[in-house]
Amino acid sequence: MQIHNLKRIHKNKKDRLVGRGGKHAKTSGRGGKGQTARAGNKRRPELRDIIKKLPKNRGYQFNSVRRAVILKKDKLVGEKESFKEIRKRLGVKGRKIVIK
User: Fold this and answer.
1) Does residue 96 lie in a domain region?
2) Residue 52: in which H helix or E strand, if any?
């Protein structure tokens, strides 16, 4: 047996091209007439254009993080009270503490 004697069990089938006329006839699987039936139909969604025009704000910060807690020196219990103790006493979470 040689290469030219070999036969395939299944014949080669090429993928059907859409919108080239031929077997499907009339619209060739592209629906009706108009913009969507034409070649090169790439319509962008309106909402996408609106989103693209919005400015990009890099990063995100919570308002609670930005505002610092201002604490006066006379409000301190001890002179060497740590920030950990102050946070526990005042119930402050995730904020900057400024002592004035």
Assistant:
1) yes
2) helix 46-53
Token code pair at residue 27: 């619209």
Cα-only R_g, the chain: 36
Into how many domains does the chain fold? 1
Q: What is the pLDDT of residues 3-12, one digit of tens each?
A: 999 988 888 8
Neighbours of 71 (CB within 10 A): 16
Residue 71 is predicted with a pLDDT of 82
d(CA 12, CA 96): 72
Contact 58, 87 (CB under 8 A): no
Domain holding 80, by residue range, is 66-100
In a domain, 44, yes or no: no
Give pLDDT tens digits for 14-23.
766 666 655 6
In a domain, 28, yes or no: no
